[in-house]
Amino acid sequence: MNSLLKTCSAIAAASALLVACGGGNSDDPTPSSEPGVLTVGNATLPGLNGVYGNGALNLTEVDKKNPVGSVPELCTFRFDGANKVGSSETAFGDVRYRPDATGLHQIFVTFAGKEYSNGDPVDTSVARDSNQVRLTSKTLTATDASGNTLQVSGVIPMRPNRPFGC
After folding, report:
1. pTM of the prediction?
2. Distance CA 27, CA 24 (A)
């Protein structure tokens, strides 16, 4: 009975520690010291135009994923905390690129609650040496089939401890 009590106590303590430390879940972006900024222009919804990112962005670790099916092996990470300057709006996103590629495979960014995406590497670069993804007047289209578009320029930082090729 005593060993059962000790085992249960150890499990409870480990569970409490995991909850207190975030459970080891790397799916949620955490604060970084890396600055990032996105500038939106030419938006079909003009209220989205502006500068997002007035400090360091929150980032997840870069993960290498090899999904089943026709999707290629991808390096992926997420960011949030890109607050619009002079507004309460914010932007967050999901960045995907192929190992050793120089451009993005796909990007999803949500501005003011509306998701935009593009799956073309044009106007993007993955700058591993400076731990950044760069966008240059990248046109993103709303994923809700509304036809809304916007152009994004800027820098999204990446954490430096990435898997090989990422």
Report:
1. 0.82
2. 9
